[in-house]
Amino acid sequence: MAQDVSPNKTTATNRRRSRAKFTEDQLKILVNAFNQKPYPGYATKKRLASEINTEESRIQIWFQNRRARHRFQKRSEPEEDLKSSQDEDHPEEKIRSREDRRCRTSYTSSQLHTLIEAFMKNPYPGIDSREQLAKEIGVPESRVQIWFQNRRSRFHVQRKREPDEALEQRQDQGQDP
DNA sequence: ACCCTAACCTAATCAACGA
DNA sequence: TCGTTGATTAGGTTAGGGT
Dihedrals φ, ψ of A58, to 5°? Predict the structure, then answer.
């Protein structure tokens, strides 16, 4: 698609975080945990993270990717396997036992100010920028990443809503759907 | 070249908190 | 109670590292 607000590549500040390589032991623990609970709560992710010595955000990403892969496979093989697997959700039971989320981060107005300013300069900060920002305002880098994701998403939505009007005080880098 | 998958993205939705 | 916004999800894309 021609939707390229994309990061300006080679700029050092837009680099991705380096790719993790899990050892077999680590993978074994992750896969095992996944088979028991594909939707772990925050406490579980935290525990796994310290167990295999990585960050909680890596665990989160790993589970997301793993679930996606599984769904894809299931689509290929719609039949088979019906009952042999363990557990299946009793909806009610599952909803009740919805695991804990990470508690909501609340930002001070000065932290928000810093974030917003950075967003206006570059809505797609790379790992280095995010880490620096995180250090500056004293929150984990993963929270900064989530903040940018939400901000971008809502920025896009807001834009669709108001095609015209309020076209006065906006400087954008020229992009139109 | 190709494959696998971590990293990253958007859009929708859940849910905490304050006015 | 309701709007704002942080957290989580589905589902898709980008890119690093191994073959």
Answer: -70, -35
